[in-house]
Design goal:
The protein has 229 residues and is mainly alpha-helical. It has a single domain, classed as Hypothetical protein af1432, CATH 1.10.3210.10. It has 13 helices and no strands. Helix 3 packs antiparallel against helix 4 and helix 3 crosses helix 9. The longest helix has 21 residues. The radius of gyration is 21 Å and the shape is elongated. The mean pLDDT is 87.
């Protein structure tokens, strides 16, 4: 295992005349493996399995594999975008890594909307990340509490938001979503969410900074018991 400084020193010394590094995927793998060395999944297994899976899921793109390998590094370690820039990762990689990285104090659904504005690389990698996070087979032995259930519902909403974003066409043939659509506006365009206003509003309360909420149905009238009122 190498420290961040050791990796940076070796990578920078290997560059010539400021040219971008070679073997970016190998370097991304080293950074991910070392920076997340002590981190575990909720299942107790080594965390590196997650970025390895995300980086290879549904893609043969070298850039997306690099982004997938790095997608948790900034959020879960002391690495920064500037560190990755110093080593020599391309601006395409840096833009997408920033797009798939939740920032401190950023609400989760706000992050998803920002990711949707960060380009195709970020959207595709985040969809893969969500698919793996929602894979129930990884956590069969873990009993879910209410907080975890709400978090999984937020993952599901985020996945639909980004998948529908990929369906957007400028000619207007598809209309569910487009880059920059607010989460509430997206929710209001989908009948399956509008039909569950209480659950949706709980998700918005916990994971979004948007102020608008779905209207709740009027309370059902209950006749008083005989002899009362």
């Amino acid at each position: 295992m190498f420290s961040k400084q050791e990796i940076m020193d070796r990578a920078v010394s290997a560059r010539t005349d400021g040219m971008p590094i070679e073997a970016e995927l190998a370097m991304a793998t080293v950074i991910s493996a070392c920076s997340l060395f002590y981190k575990k999944q909720r299942s107790g297994e080594d965390y590196i399995e997650h970025p390895l899976t995300v980086s290879t899921m549904n893609t043969r793109s070298r850039s997306k594999r690099i982004i997938g390998m790095l997608h948790d590094v900034i959020e879960d370690s002391d690495w920064t975008l500037d560190d990755l820039r110093t080593i020599g990762f391309s601006e395409r990689i840096l833009k997408a890594v920033d797009g798939v990285t939740k920032r401190p104090n950023e609400k989760y659904l706000d992050f998803i909307v920002r990711c949707g504005q960060s380009g195709k690389d970020a959207v595709d990698v985040k969809i893969n990340d969500l698919k793996h996070n929602m894979d129930g087979s990884r956590y069969r032995h873990i009993v879910k509490d209410e907080k975890q259930s709400l978090k999984e519902a937020a993952y599901n909403l985020a996945h639909h938001y980004l998948v529908d974003l990929k369906k957007f066409k400028e000619n207007g043939e598809t209309h569910y979503n487009y880059p920059g659509t607010s989460m509430v506006d997206y929710i209001k365009s989908r009948r399956e969410y509008v039909s569950q206003p209480e659950m949706v509003n709980r998700l918005l309360d916990m994971f979004s900074s948007e102020l608008e909420r779905l209207p709740l149905p009027p309370p059902t009238f209950k006749a008083p018991f005989p002899g009362m009122g």
